[in-house]
Structures are given as C-alpha cells and as structure tokens.
Amino acid sequence: MCCSGFLKIMMFIFNGGIFLAGVAILGVGVWVKVDSGSLLGLVEEVDGAPSGLSQLSNVAYLLIAVGAVLLLIGFLGCCGAVKESRCMLLTFFSIVLILFLVEVAGCGAVRLRWFGRGSPWSARR
C-alpha cells in the first residue's frame, strides 16, 4: 500500500508541473497574440538579432494550442491521480499515447524526408 501512495504523490507532482508549464505557455501565447508590439519591441532591443525574428508574433497560435493541450493533460493526470478516477486516467493515458505515436510517426517521416532511402544512414551494415 505504501507504493501506491508514493506513486499517487509522484503522479500528482509531475502532472502538476506539466499543468503549470501549460499555464505558462498558454499565458505567453495569449500575451504574444494580444500585445505583439511589446514583444517586437523587446526583440528589436537585442543586439545582433536576426531580422526574421519579427515573424515571432505568428507563433502565438502554436503556443496557445500547445499550452492548452499541456493544461488538459496536466489536469487529467492530477485529478485522475488524486481522485483515482478510472475515466480521467484512461483519457490521460489515451492522449499521452496518441501524442507519443504522432511523435514516432513524425520522426519516421523526417528521417525518410531528409535522409531518403538511398542515403548511407539507411544502408544495411
């Protein structure tokens, strides 16, 4: 029984960190979307900053989406661990599994796109 209590606390702590990271990323995304002028002002003050950084305000939607997903994952993990809710934990696991599969598929697509089938990286040894 001690192990299950420890796992519950650890799952709460780690998912709480994910939740807080989601809040921070979501907050930055909303800030960039609402007040992109102040962000561009900060970027212009940096010495030697590349000129392409003015496109940074276009990333707001991506930050909002990533922050919202992390917020949802962290919430489901925390509440599911504390309440021992099978539905919340199953939803948490399903979202994490889908994200993992998308990452693996993305890595495979990048490998095929950049290295191709005839590259030394794909040759059998």
TrEMBL record:
Question: How the protein sits in the membrane?
Answer: Multi-pass membrane protein
Which residue ranges does UniProt annotate as crossing the membrane?
12-32, 59-82, 89-112
Q: What does the UniProt keyword field contain?
A: Membrane, Transmembrane, Transmembrane helix
GO CC annotations on file: plasma membrane
The superkingdom of the source organism is Eukaryota
Transmembrane listed as a keyword:
yes
Q: Which InterPro entries match?
A: Tetraspanin/Peripherin, Tetraspanin_CS
* Annotated compartments: Membrane
Q: What is its main location?
A: membrane
Family (UniProt): Belongs to the tetraspanin (TM4SF) family.
What protein is this chain from? Answer: Tetraspanin-1
